[in-house]
Design goal:
alpha/beta; Rossmann fold; 18% strand; seven-stranded mixed beta sheet; 216 residues
Length: 216
Amino acid sequence: MTAFLSTGSRDAKIILVLAPGAGAPASSPWMSKVAELLAEVGLGVVRFDFAYMAERQRTGVRRPPPKAEALVGEYEAAVEALRADGAGRPGSRLLIGGKSLGGRVASLAAQGLFDHGRIAGLVCLGYPFHPPDKPQQLRTAHLKTLSCPTLIVQGERDPFGGPSDVAGYDLSPAISVHWARDGDHDLKPRRSSGATLDGNLAEAVQEIMRFAGRLV
């Protein structure tokens, strides 16, 4: 059974489900900070780990994660469990997403869930458009036809896909991208840029709120 970490009210008008990246759990400081910032502006945030990460947490043994496609069923099951518990009830909206791998898995699940009225939108934080240093290995095929409203928050220096990369992709018009100033894969800028991680996260939260507000 999926264990959920909740931040903010489960009765919020907008509930955002987040799964973490491949290297850190849903309880990581980065995920916790983002959840707290979103809760401060009124979103309810629910985080969960895929089974491989939960096993890693229990045993301390680090094994490579399964392929993203193999995790889609777990994400869909988490959504159904939350809906059975009242998330996405009339008058509220359920969004899905995640950090890096978690966002990619959510993006693979999003169209089916959206078509069946299970979710209202998708939020990806640091989407892995391609592996670092391998820009030819794109993970964008399903993003070309996606009709689920989608927001991608991406650092300008993200090695998994920066502005010059993304500008050449044939992405669906349902997808909007917010660029975090000089941000890396965690949206963290270099000190010399004049930007700060706190500032980039605050702007990301504002963009997520604007995006979510359009769906209510």
